[in-house]
């Protein structure tokens, strides 16, 4: 299986490029936000537990998130592979994902880091907020999300470099140009 972690700051193009990867390579897309909403909507035991944390304004513990991802991953046994979008976000989550995949005889094939300068991220997210009405795409919230990204999530770059699966992708330019670079990284695995 081809297992990809797509990585980058908010507004780096992860969702856009994930859709293109899914289409070209026939992979499944696992977005943690979508998975959580589905588990809660379907009233599963995992979903009920997750909802309890969310309703109390708490982050979902890593162990619970891994259980949920493992459940989704196991349901895709006949898949050509998956894209993990929105996970991992911390080194502890990366360790847990690696262990979960190893238990299944799998591993992360590549981590694609879509790098975009902060001023461009701000421009993209504000524009997205104006076009989509997403409440979290306003300047104050974007700045907070970028601080969290830099403090908690960016350290994963070094973790995946040490793991040997890191690939830098310049997230500036045309969507087609960025996707061509992604395809080169995937095909060079």
Automatic annotation (TrEMBL):
Family stated for the protein in its record: Belongs to the adenylate kinase family.
Source organism (scientific name): Candidatus Phocaeicola excrementipullorum
The protein's name in its UniProt record: Adenylate kinase
Catalytic EC class: transferase
A GO molecular-function annotation: AMP kinase activity
GO cellular-component term (any): cytoplasm
Main location: cytoplasm
HAMAP family the UniProt entry points to: Adenylate_kinase_Adk
Reactions accelerated catalytically: AMP + ATP = 2 ADP
């Amino acid at each position: 299986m081809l297992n990809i972690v797509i990585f980058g700051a908010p507004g780096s193009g992860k969702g856009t490029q994930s859709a293109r990867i899914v289409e070209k390579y026939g992979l499944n897309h696992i977005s943690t936000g979508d998975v959580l909403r589905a588990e809660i909507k379907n009233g599963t035991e995992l979903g009920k537990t997750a909802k309890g944390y969310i309703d109390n304004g708490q982050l979902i513990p890593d162990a619970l998130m891994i259980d949920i991802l493992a459940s989704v991953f196991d349901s895709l046994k006949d898949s050509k592979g998956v894209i993990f979008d929105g996970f991992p976000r911390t080194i502890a989550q990366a360790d847990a994902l690696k262990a979960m995949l190893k238990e299944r005889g799998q591993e992360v094939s590549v981590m694609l880091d879509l790098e975009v300068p902060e001023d461009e991220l701000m421009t993209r997210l504000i524009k997205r907020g104006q076009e989509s009405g997403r409440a979290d795409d306003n300047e104050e919230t974007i700045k907070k999300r970028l601080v969290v990204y830099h403090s908690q999530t960016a350290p994963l770059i070094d973790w995946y470099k040490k793991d040997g699966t890191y690939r830098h992708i310049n997230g500036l330019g045309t969507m087609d140009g960025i996707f061509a670079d992604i395809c080169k990284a995937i095909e060079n695995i």
